[in-house]
Amino acid sequence: MAQKKISVTESTSVRQQVQTPGARVLLAEDDRALRRFLQVILERAGYTVVPAADGLEAMKIALSSPVDVVVTDAMMPNLSGHELCRFIRNSQTLAHLPVILLSALEQKEPNEGEQVDAFLSKPVAGEDLVSCIEKLLARARAN
Predict the structure, then answer these.
(1) What is the pLDDT of residues 76-102, one digit of tens each?
(2) Less CB within 10 Å around the terminal CB: N or C of the chain?
(3) Over 70: is that where the pLDDT of 107 sits?
(4) From CA 100, how far away is CA 118, in angstroms rounded?
């Protein structure tokens, strides 16, 4: 089943229509300072953030705690964001989760092999991340 990829450049009018207070965001980022920075931005936007220091920790959290969306760094120790995404897509219980891949490597669109819903380049603007999450959650609720 092909899913429409979300573009961050789409109209931000969705933001006014979609507010998902308390939605749980699994944030997998191995850079502690960046993880904390993104956590603060997301919490200020009204999300509950479940932080993970690497992909393996994120995988364990996803299996044991309810989350609504996954934001993951592409390159992390123990289990990369790419591997985490493949794990999520191959899991019967997690495959429905929207996944946002963050990477310092330039990539304009997620490729089909990634199986991600959105790709954001680092450094990511907090507003772009929040907007992307809101769009993905709106799409998930519509399905």
Answers:
(1) 999 999 999 999 999 999 999 999 999
(2) N
(3) no
(4) 5
Q: Is the distance from CB of 25 to CB of 43 less than 8 angstroms?
A: no
pTM above 0.90, yes or no: no
| Position 52, amino acid | A
Question: Could you tell me the two tokens for 100?
Answer: 């946002």
* Antiparallel, parallel or unpaired: β 118-121 and 69-73: unpaired
pLDDT digits (tens, 9 = 90+) for 42-83: 999 999 999 999 999 999 999 999 999 999 999 999 999 999
What is the second-level CATH architecture of the domain 21-142? Answer: 3-Layer(aba) Sandwich (3.40)
Domain spans of the chain? 21-142
C-alpha to C-alpha distance for 79 and 38, rounded to whole angstroms: 20
